[in-house]
Amino acid sequence: MMLLVEARAQAVQTSAPGPLSDGTCRLAGMPRFEDEDLSDAEFRECDLSRARFVGVVMQDAVIDGLVTNLVVNGVEVTSYVEAELDRRHPVRVLIRSASPADLVSAASRLRACWDATVSRLRSMPTGSEHERVGGEWSAVETMRHLVFVHDSWFRRCCLGSTALFTGLGLASGFVPDQESQGLDPSAAPSLDEVLAVRSAQAAELADWLSGVTPAELASPAPVPDGPGWPPYARGRTVLECVHVVLNEEWEHHGFCVRDLAVLEG
């Protein structure tokens, strides 16, 4: 994400600082839109932190992403959204837990969700597993990304592994030096090939979680020295890295289910 933000920041044309209507100062490089029609606009993979929407008309808008401290007409609404998501999806509470037992339960529930989704996918027309919706990853690509997440955030950060990543794993475009880390840019695996890797990884995670202690979770992540993804994991705890793995499983499952619903019409 930081690489994306830096690249976008370099692309933004700078402008002179100036006072806003409320007396605050406008920062250099801060884009400003005034009296413009941005209806039906799409902002994809953008950093909108500290953005201000003043006197705007926003109807039927959809926001999907990492949102914190969002204030709408003077009311901070993020806490309400998070509480509702926890009510709808209790596994989210387990994912954030520091208890090994809760983490075991979270991993098991997430695996059950994916198993049900794979069964649903197999009942759909052949090729559905490779279809993209709205430019998002296909179901197979989504699961390939989770193979990469397991290799990077679990094996490398929690186990201290220096092994190359699984070749069929799929990283986001901003991850540098992908081939040198073991990823194969020409990989085009079948659903069954990806599922075989996913099954082995799920068993590895479940076995590790069943024996890990709270003290081990609270310890610094044993991230190996040298280059490798993620570069910003060093200094985090093992628990924080586990949380990333489980949260990625939950988030991307939601994306996959959303897109399958579109494909089913």
UniProtKB/TrEMBL annotation:
Domain DinB-like: 110-255
Pfam families: DinB_2
Listed InterPro entries: DinB-like (IPR024775), DinB/YfiT-like (IPR034660)
Protein name: DinB superfamily protein
Source organism phylogeny: Bacteria, Bacillati, Actinomycetota, Actinomycetes, Propionibacteriales
